[in-house]
């Protein structure tokens, strides 16, 4: 049976890696997900076989756990709309981190404070260090992901959020104290973890509480503009904590799967930070934007706003040779992706070339805009990444910006005093004409004005994005 388990684990790891490689492209992403899911099923089966051979097993408890997981996991995954996918990802990721923290706690209790294994074996350094690392990082990931979920779902009280943003430096200093406290508790437990010398359960509770509060304080002050990077970072931390727990439990599947998640999440986090031209410490300890920015206006941005109508917008695009659509979080909130696709189809029937410019951090999670547009059957080839499309704006007749703000702000390129200066943006201001769909002149999550909105070549179409695009569609049909 030992050889069978090893063979099944190897097969599962191969499917993990092959499935992950499929996620590098939209056309193979669904297949990659299914392949990785089959790999996880094989890993679970192998683990159950291994557990069965270790002695008495409470299969009723295991079955109940599996049933609860399916009941709580499948319905939200099937019913959640694409617009709410970022918060679902944050929640599921947090559950993984919380599970790892509970495993570390259970291991501590099961082994009498790491004084021995369940089967009488003496503790080893990997068991002690792995469990304590999993407890700290898993707890940080769970509570941090929970805050991210509440922020994205807009369930967090705005007054509470403002307090954290306003006093961000105080909470960041508190995080240092909490980290030292969690590590100190963990070191003490490690020193006490010798055969026959159990430690009080309150020490591991201290580790979990200190790390959990730190997770809350880390994510609370971080604004919406940084949320895609934060979600990716928390995902990487969950993977690393799972690998540490696997080390403690001597479970090869957890070690390999956790390292794959941790490595891929770390790479993605770095890529996202580079896309914003910011370091990861700057995002975690010096975030900008609290999601509650004050409203801006033409007076503060030094220009005049020119409002337009759906009829004028339709005429501009109908007689253009090339139109670029720039989606942002406003498109997701209005669920306007299907309307945008219908509008693009009408334009293309009139001989207009339509493309979509995707900024790496547009939306609330990596690839958020790609997922929404793909749901509306927008061709993958029409979605252009920032580096590929930026050189095309200068020869574009009309750029339609839907709910995007900070990722199109030319201040990032032109104003050294701007908080987002240096962040790569979409060069929308280089287009011959720009139409911006927004509800109002309120600032984006960075909390600053966007000079693009008052530029000579820009006009504003105010209102709900889905409704506005629908009105443009009717006007296009009448032309």
From TrEMBL:
The chain crosses the membrane at residues 6-25, 32-50, 56-76, 88-108, 128-150, 170-189, 201-222, 229-249, 255-275. Residues 6-474 form the NADP transhydrogenase beta-like domain. GO terms for molecular function: NADP binding; proton-translocating NAD(P)+ transhydrogenase activity. It is a multi-pass membrane protein. Keywords: Cell inner membrane, Cell membrane, Membrane, NAD, NADP, Translocase, Transmembrane, Transmembrane helix. Pfam families: PNTB. It catalyses: NAD(+) + NADPH + H(+)(in) = NADH + NADP(+) + H(+)(out). Its EC number is 7.1.1.1. One of its GO terms (cellular component) is plasma membrane. InterPro entries: DHS-like_NAD/FAD-binding_dom, NADH_DH_b, PNTB-like. It is found in: Cell inner membrane. Its main location: membrane. Belongs to the PNT beta subunit family. The transhydrogenation between NADH and NADP is coupled to respiration and ATP hydrolysis and functions as a proton pump across the membrane. This is NAD(P) transhydrogenase subunit beta.
